[in-house]
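Follow-up to my earlier ticket, as requested here are the two runs.
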Amino acid sequence: MSTAVEAPTVWDIAVDDAPVSLSARGDLIAVAGAEGTVRVLDAAMGAELGSLELPGGALSVQLAPDAGHLAATGPTGYALWRRTGGRATVRESGAWSAAAAWAGPERVAIASGRRALVLDADGEELWRTDPAASTVTDLAWMRQGRRLAVAAYGAVHGHERHTPKPVVTYPYVGSHLALAVAPTGRWICSGNQDASIHIWRTRDGGELTMSGYPEKISRLAFDDSGFWLAADGAPDITVWDFSGKGPEGTAPRSLRCHETITALAWRPGAGGRLASGGDDGTVALWYATAGRAQQRLRPARELTGDGAAVAALAWAGPHLLIAAYRNGRVRAYGVPSRTAL
């Protein structure tokens, strides 16, 4: 049974640009706004430490694992920011840049039109992929940064470092909207426009499709163990079990709270704790792996905001949950380990 509570707010600030993306690493938080303002905040107090402007708007923001660098992407290009000195490098490429992914503190992949560009932290290009069939929609690193998975219409392509042509292709006819790679490296999953999740087993290329969702799948996330995958695409969040032989022939757990899911973020660690956000402004905290398959779960806790839709969620460590709301509020919630979640 869920418990609605007054939000345990650590800090609460307003930003000028409606948030669309969040990233948290170490002691930093990055907030990207729809019109292109990217702000870097101190996780402890919410104080602004730096900012940059991305012409044409922003789509995503990603902090490097060491919190020393930031990559932001948007409809007309991308930008890099260095914590030391606060230097920003903005590239107006004219290409739709949907996503960025860091392989480590000094190497980042940027979706740029039909290619993926791999840059060092100063923005110097190291290599690029050959053009895909359509615009790159998402990307992820595998094998400790030795292989890059690139999603575009019709397939996910795997590129080794400095190898423009793919060394492996995982085909599926359709538009891939989201990409999730298990931390174990065993599974690649795409969320698709056709309201399905398609899965490839990397060991042998075995495939599986989970269909029957009422809406497109635009959010996919593995937990740190790589055994649990959360997805939107329905009023219920679905959580699939990827342990053992994987989810084939099984049913997911269903998490019911929001009418429309707008954000998903696993709590760091392998404890099966998930945060979700909805268009009603509610942030829900879950024991997402409790119970049995086909069982519908209710939140362990609900954090009620001011009614504005949740735009994004991110964990700044295991005890601080950051929520960005579409009305321009950014809040930090304390989630102690000894509470209900």
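Run two:
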Amino acid sequence: MKYSVKPLAEDSRVFKVDPQIKVKSVRFQNRYGFMVAGNLYLPADFDESKKYAVIVISGPFGAVNEQSSGLYAQTLAQRGFVTATFDQSTTGESSGDVRNVASPDIFVEDFSTAVDFLGTQKYVDREKIGAIGICGLGSHVLTAASIDVRIKAVATSVMYDMAESMWSGLNNSKTAEQRDREKQYLADIRWEDVDNDTHVGGYHELPFDENNNPVRADKLLPNEVPAGADPVTTEFINYYIKRAYHPRSINSAMIWDATSPWGYYNFPLQQRIGKITAPKLIVTGEKAHSRYMAEAAYERLTDPKELVLVPGGHAYRPVRPDGQDPI
């Protein structure tokens, strides 16, 4: 396996850094040849001669590991775990000639590749490898755990089923007519890319205008909260554009490749999560807009499993009692 572990040359994390937690820059190559980029977090009392329980972490969908997944990793390292975060293939610092193309298969593979990498480290206990998926990567980590039995425990935080959302819309709001129009839109985008040798950007969850036509854009989120914005949009903008802005994050500064829904239309996630034998933890917010997705996934899972509803919370993510970022 091709991988590297180096000192962290550029620290662009957007949360309060704990100087006692050592962090290294890592790269590991997945089965498709993408070089996945991330960070490795080591506990304050790290001893390379010991064996550690480890956790791989990624998400949210379109975020980079210097954002919330890094905060999760640091917090868990403070509790004695070795943790590794990563940017999904084609995003952030991970490789990919065509940028910001979402793929259900490749993003699931990235979790297993992170397991590959950690398993090569002599201080890792291969029988104590866990995985966490945040928001949209929650659906991917459950899919990964349904076949990768090396993942001995799996958890999701404010899980969002990306395939279901792209196909059916949030709260099953997408009509059959809109789905047909989206298929034509994707076909038109592919012809546009072929004819002009381009890679057009666009929404991964396609909105429609008042005439039921697909909306095109070159940036995922506006720079300011629009008047009358819903709580979810407000949360996204306040986090990704304001206090946790990162120039490599799609959610902060870019947009997905417009053909991204293509793969999720063809290959739904979570088809076999009922086969996961490892312990499962599903955490979501009481007011999370994706709460119904987390609860639906939980119902499909078998024991041992646990569902945690964080009281109050925000529309997008659960928060700590002091109002800071989630742990």
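The only thing I checked on run two: The chain has a mean pLDDT of 94. Let me know what else you need.
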